[in-house]
Specification:
heterodimer, A: alpha/beta, Rossmann fold, four-stranded antiparallel sheet, 7 helices, 26% strand, B: alpha+beta, six-stranded mixed sheet, 12 helices, elongated
């Protein structure tokens, strides 16, 4: 499902060159739930951004569903991000001026051939899947952190992507809320076969995933 | 997507309110300038109704004020002066008139029409030669002539086409009376001819009803002409002015004369219309530049403040193009709200008789032009910030603080 071959990422400015990833080889099967661990600055988020096509690697090859995407145009990359990948972020990134359901509809806005009513139906279904059907017209500021992260998950899964990328999804939550979010992710993986790649610092959470990829100074260490 | 943008704009109404107000006031100011510009341009495109090339105006001051003493003598002297003017080889024709084209001063009257509308029109009094001097085009009936000598039971008048249409519609106005039925001392004012629309105050002035009365230099009731108009031969130079003035002073020693060409008088009238208009347009232009800079700044700030949102949208599948269109689209909606409020206000103006000089055609055209200009301005102001938004890298934006 996700294939990374000799991936490198170097950030260059006129004065310095920062190596973020070196020779990363990673293969994630469909339906797998893996976690990426490592100390701060080890390249976890960079790796997730490269997998999620948010960042372009400086070298190597990235394939999604068997298709090499490294040379894709902006339009094509956007389409893959929209249809194949769902993102969950540590800080939720909800738009405070939009209601819960309108936030969840965002990725569907960029999908062609979806009518307004179809978008609404998919968004409501996604909210139902994360147990937030009673909060659809609330605004993010009216929700708890855990509820906000569930909205973000609903937004990530509304378009039924086969891959979910979660960047420290419980990092801003207390342990109880974190456990709730972990349960939602596990359910999506087990019940619906969604492939999940999760960046985390928490060994308690990574222990619940099938595999752990460890990074140190931009290199895989396992 | 449009619905989504509308929601976003509405939910950010507090932030967008000031921009909407700014656009609303800009529209009002711009509309006020445009309505004048369109009105003047519309007037300019209509025929003037007379020639002004090679015509000199001689303003005369008989220094008698409204003194009726010796009026018949002065009227006779006027007639002598016209004869004297005709004797010059340089002069093709000469006439006397109460108000020369492009001169100050208007003699206006008003009447209620059959349909109840108030109708204002201008009056003038001219000698028989005015038609020839100004090249007036008679479209029906005739101009004044010897035929009118000795007529006492009615007053011959020549009206312009607009007046004929307003008073008589499609009927033939010749032989009809235009005197005011409410005037107890009225004397029949019989239409003997109709000329093209005549605009004494120049191309920018409104098209209004016009009545010429016949100057009768044997009638004590006649006005003393304030101007002589002479049509000179094209090759006539300014040297003739001296000769002319000497002759005029010889004919009437106690009168004073001021000679100007109609071309110069027209240029002065143009200045009177264009100077305030240009000043107003400049103020409006500066205001629009300020608004434009303000809008660009606000949009720029918006893009910076919304870097995370833009990054999120990119992560969720928005192309650079979609982001570009979103920023412009939001600006378009905010602009439309301001303009909607502006249009709702300006459509009330005719009901309040404010800017009442503009007819519905001028009004509608001015609204359309103002709308287009404001949309162009906001689009122009949105271009750079929108382009800036497309440069946002999603990976960086999502970690932007």
């Amino acid at each position: 499902m996700i294939q990374l071959e000799s991936v490198e990422k170097v950030y260059r400015t006129s004065k310095i060159e920062t190596v973020a990833l070196t020779n990363v080889n990673l293969s994630v099967r469909g339906g797998e739930f893996i976690s990426i661990m490592g100390p701060s600055g080890s390249g976890k988020s960079t790796l997730l951004n490269v997998i999620g096509l948010l960042d372009v690697p400086s070298g190597g090859k990235v394939s999604i569903n068997g298709q090499p995407v490294t040379s894709y145009s902006d339009r094509h990359l956007a389409q893959v991000r929209n249809e194949a990948i769902g993102f969950i972020f540590q800080t939720f990134h909800l738009i405070n001026d939009l209601s819960v359901v309108d936030n969840v509809e965002i990725p569907l806005l960029y999908r062609r051939k979806l009518s307004g009513s179809e978008r609404r139906k998919l968004a409501l279904r996604a909210l139902d899947r994360v147990g937030l059907h009673a909060r659809v017209h609330h605004f993010p500021s009216q929700l708890s952190g855990g509820q906000q992260q569930r909205v973000a998950i609903a937004r990530a899964i509304a378009g039924n992507p086969r891959i979910l990328l979660a960047d420290e999804p419980t990092g801003n939550l207390d342990s109880q809320m974190g456990d709730e979010i972990m349960e939602v992710l596990k359910r999506l993986n087990e019940d619906e076969g969604t492939t999940i790649v999760m960046v985390t610092h928490d060994p308690r959470l990574s222990g619940q995933t099938e595999r752990i990829v460890r990074l140190f100074d931009g290199r895989q260490v396992n | 997507m449009i619905k989504h943008l509308c929601k976003l704009v509405w939910n950010r109404k507090r932030i967008n309110f000031l921009i909407t107000i700014e656009i609303f006031f800009s529209f009002l100011v711009l509309f006020s300038v445009i309505v004048f510009a369109v009105y003047y341009l519309n007037n300019y495109l209509y025929p003037l109704g007379f020639n002004y090339e090679n015509i000199w105006s001689i303003q005369v001051d008989t220094r008698s004020g409204s003194d009726e003493k010796d009026k018949l003598q002065r009227l006779a002297k006027t007639n002598q002066i016209i004869s004297a003017l005709r004797e010059f080889g340089e002069v093709e024709s000469a006439a006397a008139v109460w108000a020369a084209p492009f001169s100050r001063g208007d003699w206006t009257s008003g009447r209620k029409l059959k349909d109840g509308r108030d109708f204002d029109y201008s009056n003038n009094e001219a000698s028989d030669e005015l038609k020839e001097v100004l090249g007036l085009n008679v479209v029906r009936g005739r101009w004044f002539s010897k035929e009118d000598d000795g007529v006492t039971n009615y007053k011959p008048v020549v009206i312009n086409q607009m007046m004929a249409r307003a008073f008589f519609g499609d009927e033939d106005p010749i032989g009809k009376d235009i005197s005011d039925p409410d005037d107890k001392e009225r004397k029949e004012a019989r239409v003997v001819g109709v000329i093209d629309d005549f605009r004494k105050n120049g191309e920018f002035s409104e098209i209004r009803g016009y009545v010429f009365n016949r100057a009768d230099f044997t009638n004590q009731q006649s006005f003393l002409p304030r101007f002589f108009l002479i049509k000179v031969r094209p090759e006539t130079t300014a040297v003739f002015e001296e000769k002319l003035l000497a002759r005029l002073q010889a004919e009437a020693r106690d009168w004073s004369f001021t000679i100007k060409t109609l071309v110069d008088m027209r240029a002065n009238v143009f200045q009177e219309y264009l100077v305030p208009m240009t000043a107003f347009a400049l103020v409006a232009g500066f205001l629009l530049i300020m608004v434009g800079l303000g809008l660009t700044g606000v949009l720029w700030l918006t893009v910076t403040q919304r870097t995370k949102e833009i990054g999120l949208r990119r992560a969720k599948g928005a192309t650079k193009r979609r982001i570009y269109h979103q920023i412009l689209g939001e600006m378009f909606i905010i602009t439309s709200l301001g303009l909607l409020a502006g249009v709702l206000v300006v459509v009330q103006f005719p009901l309040l008789n404010f800017l009442g000089f503009a007819d519905s055609k001028v009004y509608t055209l001015s609204i359309i032009i103002s709308l287009v200009l404001i949309y162009l301005l906001t689009a122009l102001c949105g271009l750079y910030p929108s382009r800036l938004a497309t440069k946002v890298q999603p990976a960086e934006a999502l970690h932007y603080e």
